Description:
The structure holds 2 protein chains of 2 kinds. In chain A, strands 1, 2, 3, 4, 5, 8, 9, 10 and 11 form a 9-stranded antiparallel β-sheet that branches. A 5-stranded antiparallel β-sheet of chain A has the order 12-13-14-15-16, covered by helices on one side. Chain A is extended. In chain A, a hairpin with a 4-residue loop joins β12 and β13. The longest helix of chain A has 43 residues. In chain A, 55% of the residues lie in helices and 12% in strands. Chain A is α+β, with helices and mostly antiparallel strands. Helices cover 66% and strands 0% of the residues of chain B. In chain B, 45% of the residues are buried. Chains A and B meet through α1, α3, α9, α10 and α11 of A and α1, α2, α3, α5 and α6 of B.
Amino acid sequence: MSTTIDDEVTPETRPKPTKRQRRAANIADAASGGVKMLLLKLLLLGIVDAIAVYGVVILASAGQWLVAAIVAVVTVIVNWIYFSRRKLPAKYLAPGVIFLVIFQVFVLVYTGYIAFTNYGTGHNGSKEQAVSSLMASSLERVEDSPTYPVTVVDQGGTLGLLVTDPDGEASVGTNEQPLDEVDAEMEGGKAVAIDGWNTLSFADVIARTDEITELAVPFSDDPNDGALRTPDGSSAYLYLSNLEYDEAAGTMTNLDTGTVYSDLGTGAFTSDQGEELLPGWQIVVGFDNFVRAVTDERLAGPLIYVTLWTFAFALISVASTFFLGLFLAIVFNDMRMRGRKYYRVLMILPYAIPSFLSALVWAGMMNESFGFINQVLLGGASVPWLTDPVLAKVSVLIVNLWLGFPYMFLVCTGALQSIPDELQEAATVDGAKPWAVFRLIKLPLLLVSVAPLLIASFAFNFNNFNVIYMLTDGGPRDSNAPIPVGFTDILISMVYKVAFTGQTRDYGLASAYSIIIFIIVAVISVIAFRRTKSLEELN
Amino acid sequence: MSAQQPVPGTPTGLVVGEIDEFADASTRASTSVGGSAPRTPMPRKPFQFGRWFRATGWRHIVGVVMVLFSLFPIVFVISSALNPQGTLTGSNALFSKIGIDSFVRILTDPKVPFLTWFGNTLMIAGITAVATVFLGALAAYSFSRMRFTGRRFGLISIVVVQMFPQLLAVVAIFLLMSAIGDWFPAIGLNTHVGLIMVYLGGALGVNTYLMYGFFNTVPASIDEAAKLDGAGHARIFFTIILRLVAPILSVVALLSFIASVNEFVVASVLLIDTEQQTLAVGLTKLVSNPRYADWSAFSAGAVIAALPVVALFLFLQKYIVGGLTAGAVK
């Protein structure tokens, strides 16, 4: 392959152009573009820059200086790339690489970071957020609180209270925003409307009672001052927290019991007895998640059987689909057979249907009490296809075989047909039996060309989330495990369930599992690529 | 040869035909498929069932068994889509009742915004496919036609990165998108733009590699001729190369489209509101309990959802098979 566009680096096949030649080439290149192209380029870059400037302003005003700086630097680099006469490869690579770096590389690195934190339900935000939310959740009504007439107002879906204090001053606030004095429209000594907010009608108040009774508008910036709550949407009372936050000492004190909860570096206020106040906040916990995953008995068991099943599932899926596909490719690779084309089209249909739909349909057919397979094919049997730990695994493999064999059939057919007929003829002339021809000549040649696809198929099945989740949802559920894990879960579906389903979301543990998958896949890839040397073919 | 009968047109007819027409199979065995392939002359021998069976007959049995295995879930879902009754049990008697009630139900049920899901899916998968092809083609062009420092590193990175699918980082993606959503609600959590951006993170992957291989088969002399005529690199790329590699572009677009239609993990995490969701997320939630779900309405939805993908797939089948094996089979 010869080089067509010389840029930056010496071409391999030709002598290095002189400076004048390069300049001439650049001028010719620029001249050929035309004014329209230049305008289009300017327009596109202008749009990108405008969006970037807007982004930087927003980020800077939110105090996210680091992110703002990164956005600014990237924008400058992009402009430099596209206005430079050089940097030709960069012009073509930049758009894809930007997405790749943010949504593939960065998120993997970020996963690594989360794996070392306690991020999850109960540890979602900063310490300040934890303090204010603890104070808000332990509010109790002050016995002799004055009554504050209130009007419930709404701004873009966020409810707020418009409060008239005993002096007749109006102020407004929400769950997040403490009360702030405003000019409001008064009616009979009560503030009833305010610019920028919609006053809720009586019917709306009734309809959103649940939301309104949950409202707790902080009285001031200091959480110890308490909050206003309204039981009926028309009058509010002062509520004080029975917790007291001592910022200097970093402790929470329960005023009723006198228990002191202090920050011991575990990401939550903890009493001397080890009792934790939740929500806590997010901290870096080091290798805790990994240690927990492999040493906690109730977690280590599931991790081991899920990992083993992931390997078994991926290996058996590749093997079963490959051998069925190869067998079919051999069967239908006979020129004498009629109607091969029709068999072929009908057999690849499972591959053409979106796999999530197929898996859902199979889940319906394999239903124990009502499914097609039990009711019709087996005449009313009640085989627990999806609910028995062992049988569910078999079912998953059957369905994955159904989903995957057409692909292997297509691939093997292609590979078989690319083997020259002369080889077979030569072997036959030498007296080889058909089986020997296949085993000693065709199969090795076939494996050479199909091996990379088998590795890719293994990697795909290793993370084949859809078929597991849609068919069995990982179930039957392992009731001994503290996390929502089941007997057909593979690693990736366990990550998903730990992070996003169930009562508690444990992002830290889920990310630790992700990192474990990452390491396994990396090791397998290195071994696989060493064996196949496919990377060396890249020139 | 006079005994040869026309093959019935329908797939089922064909299968039945192959079983029933054993009698004249000996003559059929001697004619090759479709009449286009070269005919191998065979000495006319009296028909022997055993010989025919050993040569091709058993292949038909394998074929019929496999076709039954492939088709029975499809037949089942079509049958229950046509069944006006709702339940899973009611769908078990195949084609006992025929009606379009289920289709009407899935399309008009106010609680199930099926058409919205369908539109969302087509839009997200369509835009992702087009943008993936574009980004991938740009990168493949530079890898194929230019020599620069870091080129080999770039190619290896693409091979390595594709080993680590995005769904491994789904937690980080969720947290990143909710952080972005705090500052820029238009592209953060619960937006289609955000989901498409995440999908585009995977644009430079196996697809680029496929395209790279195909770009290499286009002779570089074409570029050189265009360059001598005064065309710049952008013009060569957009007006010459892109047209020459159109087949691989359509394959990559289709593979990317199917992948996005099938994608559940990231979509289910990022798209929160029912109205924003895709078919994969919506339909999965719809039948999360098959016992109580409106099974035939789901089946009707599944049939509607699968039709465009299956049609595209069969239409582009030849190219796809080529594309699938391009990386390995030479």
